[in-house]
Amino acid sequence: MSKVLFAVNNYFFSSLFSEQDLTRVRSMCDFAVEYAPPEVDKDYLLANIEDADIVVTSWGTPALDADVMSRAKRLRLLTHAAGSVKPVVSDALWDAQVRVTSAAAAIAYGVAEYCLGLILTATKRAFWASNGTSVGQWQESLKLYGGLSEIYQQKIGIIGASHVGRQLVHLLSNFTCDVLLYDPYCSDADAERLGVTKIATMEELFSQCKVVSLNAPYTEETKGMLRGSHFALLSDGAVFINTARNQIINEPEFIGELREGRFVACIDVTDPQEPCPLDHPYRTLPNVVLTPHIAGAVAENQRRMGTFAVNEIEAYLTGRPLIYEVTREQLTRIG
Questions:
Q1: Distance CA 105, CA 82 (A)
Q2: How far apart are CA 129 and CA 142, in angstroms?
Q3: DSSP character at residue 320
């Protein structure tokens, strides 16, 4: 039988992999190491990867660099039970023609659901209404920052046809709204299959949409691509949501537009550090809802990531196509 090495520390191992999924793995593979260690470092990889045909990685797994790959003569598949594979891959791994998969699509379910929740609650000013009622008000807060709205017959803008963006499109298909998409890498045919209207420029998206959700990956190309001029195009009462990466936004210009008080923002990520300083404008501006990076896999949804990883092992060993394969060429345009 093939051997699989779970290069995942015991904290994440217990939250990622159900007994049902581990039973599936045992029916297909032998375990290179029976128990997950407290920590997975380079020495752990060097000591245990020699006989592994498959390695499972996750948060905290070090890169499979040239030193590690010099011992990984049998390795043919890396399945990453987390989002971005960038922390674990290396030129040596690609040169060895190891196939790579990611569970980023599993995280997308939770992020998209969170985005939908923010869309529905922020448009109705639920957060601000709750704050108002706690100090004796009733409906006074509903008029703040351009006033409330609903998504019925509204245009909802999504930046990025990522796993998250696509899942959010699917969720929004249950509502009577028009979804506009900005993604230069999404073909017209793919946009048609998704049931969205592809928009040529971000300026068009911001000027037309009552809600804009940022779901693009952070790359050199997307760094700082959202400028103050984009946010200035938002209509009064609009909602902006960022569950992607703060580095995609030109933060000083964004904050300048937020200070105008015309729209609200729901922010789940900060930069260059998390948590952001106590005096950061995201914490103090009254038209911002700041949450502590909770959109992704923070609880039960982590098990979905483990299931996705095991599904890839099963597909590989039965000769079926890998479901969420990542290639070397894709790294420049994915998160």
A1: 9
A2: 6
A3: P
Of 40, 168, 159, residue with least CA distance to 109: 168
| Average pLDDT of adjacent 10-residue blocks, the chain of 335 residues | 96 96 97 94 98 97 98 98 96 98 95 98 97 96 96 98 97 98 96 97 98 96 97 98 97 98 98 93 98 92 96 97 96 85
Residue 263, CB half-sphere, CA atoms under 13 Å: how many?
25
Please tell me what DSSP assigns to residue 38: S
220-259: per-residue pLDDT in tens? 999 999 999 999 999 999 999 999 999 999 999 999 999 9
Q: 156, 209 in Cβ contact below 8 A?
A: yes
Q: Measured between alpha carbons, how far is 64 from 60 in angstroms, rounded to an integer?
A: 12
Tokens of 307: 């299931």
5 forms beta bridges with 55
Peptide bond into 272 cis (omega under 30): yes
Give the integer Cα–Cα distance in Å for 314 and 310. 6
Distance of alpha carbon 269 from alpha carbon 90, whole angstroms: 27
Sort 219 into a burial class: Cβ within 10 Å, 0-12 / 13-18 / 19+.
middle
Residue whose token pair is 């995942």: 8
Amino acid 115: pLDDT: 98
Return the SS3 of 197: strand
